[in-house]
Design a protein that fits this description.
The protein is an alpha+beta fold. It is built from eight helices and eleven strands. The protein has helices at about 5-10, 15-20, 35-40, 45, 115-130, 165-175, 185, 220-225, and strands spanning about 25-30, 50-55, 65-70, 75-80, 90-95, 100-105, 135-140, 180, 215-220, 225-230, 245-250. Keywords: Hydrolase, Magnesium, Metal-binding.
C-alpha cells in the first residue's frame, strides 16, 4: 500500500497494523525516505521479525518502494533495467519460494505537463518489462490509474484528469490483454470500487468518494490462486494512517 511517507505512517498506526495483519508479504510505496530513515521508522516491526527490502528514491522526499516479508527473500532486485528510472525508487521485486513479488509506484502525473510526459515514459518502459515476465509473478502497488468507470466515484468529472486519461486506461487494458489479471477486480466483478484512495480534502472519505488505484496484477498461474481480496478501509477518518488503505489479497 501507499504509506504516504513511512515516518509519518509509523507514527499514526502503521506499526500497530503490521503487528496484527495476517499478511505474509506487504508491498509499500511512497516511503519518501532513505534506507536508513525507513529502517529506523520500521525498527519495532523489524525487531518483531519482519524483513525489509527497500529501494530508496534519488529525489529527496519523493517515491521510495519496499517489500516487508515474514521470511527473508531469496533474492532482491531494484529497478527493471531502465536507465532513466533505475534509481527513482519506483520498483523493487523479491523472489520467494514459489513466486516473485514486486512493489511499484507509478507517477501520479498531471495532464499537459512534463510530469505527465515522464509518467508516459515510465509506462512505456515498465509495460515492456511486464510483458516480458513469465512464471509465478505478481506486482502490487499504487498504479495511479483507475482502469474503468467502476474504479472512481466521480468518473464523469475526471475525464480529463491524470489517472483517468484514455491513454492511461488503455495501457492497463494492454497489460490485461497480454496475460495479466487484475486480481481485485476479478474477485469483485461489476461493482463500484472497492476504492483504495480518498482525498484528504472535503468529505471524500466519509462519502466514500474514492478511486481504485491500488491493485495487484498477477500472471495467470498465480492469479488463479487468489481467493479473497479486501480493502482494509479505516473505520473512521481520524483512524487513517495514510490517504490510501491496504489492499490485501489471500492466495491459495
Amino acid at each position: 500500500m501507499n504509506v504516504n511517507g513511512v515516518r509519518a505512517a509509523t507514527g499514526k498506526g502503521m506499526l500497530e497494523w503490521l503487528a496484527v495483519t495476517e499478511a505474509d508479504i506487504v508491498c509499500v510505496q511512497e516511503t519518501r525516505a532513505t534506507d536508513e530513515q525507513t529502517r529506523a521508522a520500521l525498527a519495532p516491526a523489524l525487531a518483531n521479525g519482519w524483513f525489509l527490502a527497500h529501494a530508496e528514491p534519488e529525489s529527496k522526499g519523493r517515491a521510495g518502494v519496499g517489500i516487508l516479508s515474514r521470511r527473508e527473500p531469496r533474492c532482491v532486485r531494484i529497478g527493471f533495467g531502465s536507465a532513466e528510472f533505475g534509481a527513482s525508487g519506483r520498483y523493487i521485486e523479491a523472489d520467494f519460494d514459489d513466486a516473485t513479488v514486486a512493489s511499484v509506484y507509478v507517477h501520479s502525473g498531471e495532464e499537459n505537463t512534463p510530469r505527465q510526459d515522464e509518467k508516459y515514459r515510465f509506462m512505456a518502459e515498465f509495460g515492456a518489462y511486464l510483458k516480458s515476465r513469465t512464471g509465478a509473478y505478481v506486482v502490487s502497488g499504487d498504479w495511479n490509474i483507475a482502469p474503468t468507470e467502476l474504479d472512481l466515484k466521480n468518473w464523469k468529472g475526471n475525464l480529463k484528469s491524470a489517472g483517468f486519461l484514455p491513454e492511461e486506461r488503455a495501457w492497463i487494458q494492454e497489460l490485461l490483454a497480454s496475460g495479466y489479471t487484475d486480481v481485485v477486480r476479478h474477485l469483485h466483478p461489476g461493482v463500484s470500487g472497492p476504492y483504495s484512495w480518498w482525498s484528504y480534502r472535503g468529505r471524500a472519505f466519509d462519502n466514500d468518494s474514492g478511486w481504485r488505484i491500488d491493485y495487484q496484477l498477477a500472471l495467470s498461474g498465480l492469479a488463479e490462486r487468489a481467493k479473497q481480496a479486501v480493502v482494509e478501509r479505516a473505520a473512521a477518518y481520524d483512524q487513517r494512517w495514510s490517504d490510501h488503505a491496504p489492499v490485501t489479497v489471500q492466495y491459495r
